[in-house]
Amino acid sequence: MDDVLQLKRRVLELENSLGKERTRSHELELRLLEGGGGGGGEEPFRPKIETMSSEVTDSNPYSRLMALKRMGIVDNYEKIRTFAVAVVGVGGVGSVTAEMLTRCGIGKLLLFDYDRVELANMNRLFFQPHQAGLSKVSAAEFTLRNINPDVQFETHNYNITSLQHFQHFLSRISGGGLSGSSVDLVLSCVDNFEARMAINTACNELGQMWMESGVSENAVSGHIQIIIPGRTACFACAPPLVVAEGLDESTLKRDGVCAASLPTTMAVVAGLLVQNALKHLLGFGTVSSYLGYNALQDFFPNMSVRPNPSCDELYCRKRQGEELARRAAQLESVEPALKETSDVVLHEENTWGIELVGETTTEEEAAATGQVPHLPEGLSLAYTRPAQVSLGEEVEDTEESLDSLMAQLKCL
Ligand SMILES: [Zn+2]
Question: Do 264 and 169 fall into the same domain?
């Protein structure tokens, strides 16, 4: 027993010193980059801009973005400077995501990745061959700062799935916002289920909205998904089969075999992800709940997935309880008459609590089957556009009565 305790203590000590070494090497890399090794000078190319302006001049980097207001798309584009977004995973999707947000003038970006740039990454966008060997977060920060010095950056060169770093990751999600509050949005751009589960656990615990993205190993399909703890299915509510069956994904990988990747699919998925994030943050258009992309058929399935009342994650069930209580309280205060509606419990036999939005005819379904994105068991596709996902605080349109909500609350 003593031996085990000693070993555990030793592992913690080693993890601590590794963390310190990483911080030192990160600082060293930044100094090297600033010294000219990264291809730029010590100072960013342009000075900071205090106020975003709509002025149409060749030297205004925001004129085309501010024109969204004149075109009637966005009411208040300048608001983008008030948001902090965490990008977890700065690979093929994450680096492009971070670049798009930087060019859009986001207030603050928090980047998390433990990997280094390799020549094997050069089939994707963003990183360049001379950056090989540098940590992805340092190389990204340097490039992005030069593109837009108005953005604040915070980088973390560690693996969020390790015990020690997970706690720090949690603290940066809850305290890394612009005024020390929680970040406004977490974007998952990681390439493995373990890291997605870590983000899921953190966001369920904190009640933090996040958006998940993924590209398939054969490089020809991908998806984005919004996860609002308690309101939509979390990553553990409907886990991919590899996780549901308790398999260790590292055992699925073999030496000399790697996943395929295309810069096209990754950029499309990054574009869909940032588009959804901008629509949510700036309040325009329809925010997609789940949007798939099948490159072989140019097919974009769109659906919404409800949370699973018997999800394995304690904090997911807790957030579902809070959500039901919130909706019950709203119904009670706003629409007392709704109490008298019939007690129809939706999806009584639906173990997963999954509801698909959108009606599909048999003909449409038959025509659209074939190569579709890999979906967890129990999920099928809705081919028509679902009703708009409401993200505001207004009373939601629901067919459920107050009694039905209270009954669900008791079951949790
Ligand atoms: Zn869940």
Answer: yes
258 is catalytic: yes
Q: What is the pTM (predicted TM-score) of this model?
A: 0.75
| Counted domains in the chain | 2
Find the 193 Cα to ligand 1 centroid distance in Å: 15
Q: Are residues 19 and 152 in the same domain?
A: no
What domain range includes position 30? 7-36
* 80-120 confidence digits (pLDDT tens): 999 999 999 999 999 999 999 999 999 999 999 999 999 99
Catalytic one among 203, 237, 258, 411?
258
Tell me: the pLDDT tens digits for 232-274?
999 999 766 544 455 555 555 566 778 899 999 999 999 999 9
Gap between the Cα atoms of 346 and 45, Å rounded: 58
- Assess whether 24 and 143 both reside in one domain: no
**How many Å lie between the centroid of ligand 1 and the Cα of residue 347?**
17
Distance (angstroms) between ligand 1 centre and the Cα of 354 equals: 11
Domain membership of residue 218 (yes or no) is yes
Q: If you measure from the C-alpha of residue 117 to the centroid of ligand 1, how many angstroms do you get, rounded to a whole number?
A: 34
Q: Do 86 and 22 share a structural domain?
A: no
